[in-house]
Amino acid sequence: MQTTLYTQIAENLQSQIREGALKVGERIPSVRRQAQIHSVSIATINMAYAQLEDKGWIEARPKSGYFVKPMPSSPLGLPQLSEKVSTRPRPANLNQLVMEVQRDAAERKGHSMSSAIPALDFPILAHVQKRYTQISRTRRILGAGYDAPEGNLNLRQEIARRAAEAGYSVAPESIVTTAGCQNALYLCLQVLTQRGDIVAVESPCYYGLLQMLEALGLRAIEIPSRPDTGMSLEALQLALTQWPVKAILTVANFSNPMGS
After folding, report:
1. Which one of 64-73, 94-103, 154-163 scores highest in mean pLDDT?
2. Which domains does the chain have, with CATH numbers?
């Protein structure tokens, strides 16, 4: 399988850190400078840096740039399943529980770990705000009214262009924009399933996915999942032989709640 350009750049920087060419606490070249060095787009470098951040090699400091992050002296332990996973499909029914948890979290002071929302001082947010302001001054209509069901054509063309820079070939006509990942999954499940059908989900999985199954009247069958290996293919194969599973929901990257 061909390695994407941003992955190659990330692996090169990772090797420099591992070999000591870039030391702990040292500032690495800015996104703009790195794009000039490799003759690539800023988007490609952003994806490379995001990959390094995810792996724990670098960290972003507000208004300062990216720095080499100290690696932990010993690997973190893997989370363990606290209870036995059910092997039979069952209706998803947790709306009341979710509301109680969210209400309790809102009343408590401190940092909430329930949502993946960037900090307001995250460096890229200032860049997005600046660009949005510039566009709002030059465009007569911005975000007002309705567009095509598959999304704004200019946006889909830009997504296709960014995908090409990252090594993926996709036509704008093949892209459908949604109001988020859950909206996209909801549309897919509406096409693939009917009320009462069985859907395989990771265990543990994001509670929003179970709420979506509940809203569609679907049943869930839990498939054990680990942060290092993902969904158990053996358990999934067993479930597929025993039950008429119509769809499989899995979050292969940046999993919530496992964080892997």
Report:
1. 154-163
2. 5-68 (1.10.10.10), 90-106+179-249 (3.40.640.10), 124-174 (no CATH)
